[in-house]
Design goal:
By secondary structure, the protein is α+β, with helices and mostly antiparallel strands. It has two helices and nine strands; from the N terminus they run αββαβββββββ. The longest helix has 38 residues.
Length: 152
Amino acid sequence: MSQKKLNILLLVLLIWAIAATSVASYLYLENSYLRREVGSLGGKAILVNIGIDYGNGTLVWFNNTPLPQGSTALTALVSVAQVEYKLSSMGAYVTSVNSVQEKIVSQSEGYSWMWYRFDEGKRALVAGEVAADRYKLVSGETIVWRYEHWKF
């Protein structure tokens, strides 16, 4: 490799390193500011991590999302996405997230939105035990909404 190409490569790497460090520093400072702001609310707000898995390899994270204390798994999703859902005596049932609609292929097969929470004890995601509008979140919790294929 010629000296000129090596110098250009080193310059590009230096620029990349400066840009990456700047972005990381900015995000760290923003996160610190957000944590201080939430802390100043005196327990009236929580921070949660929200993931949306579209079932096609796309997973979008909304980490440290501030929500009012008492928020539910559904509240969290609605705070970061356009959501359509149906209410029944059993609770809320999500039918669409950011225009990705539930798809019923037959009575025994389809694609639907399901929610999961990260269980610290099991160190794994576990299916939501109740309807999303009935599960109260706690600060630091992680939930994931997945568009999943199901079949009986």
